[in-house]
Amino acid sequence: MRSDEALTEARCALGICNACGYCNGFCDVFEAAKRRPVLTDTDLYQLANLCHHCRNCLYACQYAPPHPFAVNVPRALARARWRSYEAYAWPDSLALLFRRNVLAAPLVALAALVAVVGGLLIAVPVEQLFARYQGPGAFYRVVPLEIMILLGALPLGWSLIAMTIGLYRFWQATRPGSASLSVDALAAGLRDTLVLRNLHGGGPGCNDLDERFSHARRWLHHGLFYGFLLCLAATVAASLYHHLLGLEAPYPLLSPPVLLGTVGGLAMAVSTAGLAYVKWRADPEPTAAETLGADYGLLALLFLVAVTGLVLLGWRASAAMGLLLAVHLGSVLGLFLLLPYSKLVHAVYRFAALLGDALDRHREPRSISADQAERERT
Amino acid sequence: MQRPDVLVIGGGTAALCAAISARRTGAQVLLIEQAPSGLRGGNTRHSRNLRVMHEEPTAFSSDTYPEDDFWRDLWSATGGATDPGLARLLIRRSSDVTDWLADAGVHLQPTAGGVLPASRKTAFFLGGGKTMLNALYARAGRLGVAIRYGCAARELLLQNARVEQVKIQAEGGPQTLRPLTTVACCGGAQANRQWLRTQWGEAAEGFINRGTPFATGEVLASLLQQGAVAVGDPRGAYLVAVDARSPADDGGIVTRVRCMPAGIVVDVEGRRFHDEGVDTASTRYSAWGGLLADRPRQTGYLILDARGLRAAPPSLYPPLTARTLADLAAQLEMDPDRLQASVATYNAAVRPPAEGADPADWHTIGLHPPKSRHALTLIEPPFGAYPMRPGITFTYQGIGVDAQARVRIQAGGSAENLFAAGMIMAPNIIGRGYLSGLAITIGIVFGRIAGEEAARHALG
Ligand SMILES: Cc1cc2nc3c(=O)[nH]c(=O)nc-3n(C[C@H](O)[C@H](O)[C@H](O)COP(=O)(O)OP(=O)(O)OC[C@H]3O[C@@H](n4cnc5c(N)ncnc54)[C@H](O)[C@@H]3O)c2cc1C
């Protein structure tokens, strides 16, 4: 689908929503759309990123297919969202990766994996690679610490820069001349991001699979997100051990780095599997079929990162450690590289959209008289 | 199920409430819905709120709405065209409707969210009527109600005040059912052009049906023919002003045109015909619907200038716009001189409010008809127009029922095994006029009564 078609579809759908408004109890999108009646491209990017794809508004819609208006807001916004990733990507030339994400993302991940595993096979003599190591510094006997840090820090640094620039561009575009951030709005935006308020569907949850309400997808997302954070915490804890305490990995099973990583890895593995299952079982109607491949690919990569980490933990004392370490590092490298060029980037735009919306809400308290309310409906 | 204990005809609020109640009372229930599953649910699909009496503030409605307030509102809205016994029954039984709905899995929208207008008299469905229907269909299915889509009742055969047979049209062709009891919940006849023509003549051609195309009225006609008591006004229709470009059916809530006070309304000849400033509260839209029905080609145009265009709420179709009134008239295929003259005469008659009065009290002097409030001159280009037609919501003819929702018979008494709920019997309570949220409440309250009574009758 051409990008402008995606935006036109979203504009038509939300134009009807603005005249209807029945769904405004599900999430913040509909009131936000009312504040932006012109629905410019940037408005649509903001709204698309505010949308958490709970799908409730499709099953609630009196204009959803087979009605001739054929309103399908979740699908239209999924497409517009994807389009926004392309629009704000940095550098511009790499925006192309979003247009071919089904192909590009797996290729990048695969390349990272092959590069690390291949590099190791070439650089490290077989006896050394498949030897059993135990005790402090075991990992670094296969992959020197400096290489490991480079493998992690360089791509991560690049990705963080790219995402920061993307975020800045998005914020500049969606908040022209807006008032400065208030503490209230910041707190609200942060809270909405961390608790996923917009995935509560106004109480009953979301239409994860079909018209029935469920909280599964929200919990799975929490599992993935907080699992990921735990893994990051594990890495930070490990580097503290290394640099402050002078203790070299691998660390004992009951040490904070290993505990955090294990719990985080398990949470990520279970959640990615769960999310893929939900995606597979879900009614395809509200989703943008053309982004599904990329979604599955990304879930698979996250799953790989988590599982290889866990397997490495389990078999770190075996002869397979070297190879397992390489596979784990390769998948992590792929993930870091893809942060700004895959659906993962939604994290930053989602946060920006939530923050922006919190600002708008705090600025314009709404009030409608009861009398008007009674008159409005029939 | 050739011979269900209870046959429920219809697939909207009333039908689902009847089916669930009958099933919970222990009966075997078959529900037949004329629409295919994707378009199930009648006009309920398009609804948003319901009117409930409550003695205390609730999570869904502010303040209180006691029985007598409800009664007074109903009395004044219908101008007394209401059956007091049934109306009181409705009001009292509305008090536990939200609990019943919650128990059936329906979610209402808490006012605490801050995006709902504070409403004392009504509660809003979270996500609107279709989300409610999804929950009720799911519940009915889980309870074991058999549901057939694309299955229409064509005729009920009454003998000695008993329904002996129900002729239906299903996918496989016509069939005859012999249910022990039947509950008719199939709405009004507003989608039936033939029906409208017999009441409204040629004017019916200009009507747009706001709701479901499946409210075809065969069952209503069949029952009236066989001696069910007719209530309400056969020529009555709840008409509101809708955009003339709307689809013939099912345009729903977004087709309304609402900002008459911001401009002037002219007919196809460019003449004003009614006070646009008069605020008749909840009957405002219906006032315009009826007025349009009486105009040539059942068409009118709301004319706005740039100020009005800026103030207009979001609409399904953008207004037609032009730099000058003459160009606008050309787009409307109207005599430009007439339109310009109407606007000029109007502008010349506009006067500011008296010192210290409400700023909305701009009004006209010496103009017929006057514009009594909100009368601002139309001078700032561009000018815009919303073409409008009457949009029919429901008709005011129904069948009489008693307090058990049994269908009353002209010969006296009530049918033994025939019940009715929802719009098909609503004219017992609203003979004319309307109160927001009342239709759904009628569907729920009488659906529940009819379902329970029907099941009890069937089970002996
Ligand atoms: C745009 C719009 C907005 C509205 N908003 C509100 C609101 O906010 N609050 C409110 O109280 N009211 C509202 N109303 C009115 C309200 O929706 C209806 O009056 C109410 O839904 C009637 O419920 P019902 O169950 O009697 O009929 P319906 O919901 O209309 O259901 C009738 C059902 O019967 C089926 N049917 C018809 N004929 C047959 C047959 N021969 N055989 C089998 N099935 C048949 C139809 O397919 C349909 O499913 C609105 C109406 C419209 C058009």
Task: Give a verbal description of the structure.
- The complex is a heterodimer of chains A (378) and B (460).
- Chain A is mainly α and 378 residues long.
- Chain A has one domain (92-377).
- In chain A, 68% of the residues lie in helices and 0% in strands.
- Chain A has helices spanning 3-20, 29-34, 41-50, 56-59, 73-88, 96-99, 101-123, 126-129, 138-142, 145-174, 183-195, 216-245, 256-281, 289-314, 321-338, 346-363, 370-376.
- The longest helix of chain A is centred in the middle third of the chain and has 30 residues, at 145-174.
- The radius of gyration of chain A is 23 Å and the shape is elongated.
- The model of chain A is unreliable at 366-378 (pLDDT under 50).
- By secondary structure, chain B is an alpha/beta fold.
- Chain B has 2 domains: 6-236 and 396-459, 3-Layer(bba) Sandwich (FAD/NAD(P)-binding domain), CATH 3.50.50; 258-314 and 324-380, Flavocytochrome C3, Chain A, domain 1, CATH 3.90.700.
- Chain B is 28% helix and 22% strand.
- In chain B, strands 5-2-1-9-19-18 form a 6-stranded mixed beta sheet, with helices on one face. In chain B, strands 10, 11, 12, 13, 14 and 17 form a 6-stranded mixed beta sheet that branches.
- In chain B, strand 7 and strand 8 form a beta hairpin.
- The mean pLDDT of chain B is 95.
- Chains A and B meet through helix 1, helix 2, helix 4 and helix 17 of A and helix 5 of B.
- Residues 9-15, 32-35, 41-44, 46-50, 152-153, 185-187, 210-212, 214-216, 218-219, 252-253, 393-394, 422-423, 437-440, 443 of chain B line the site of flavin-adenine dinucleotide (FAD).
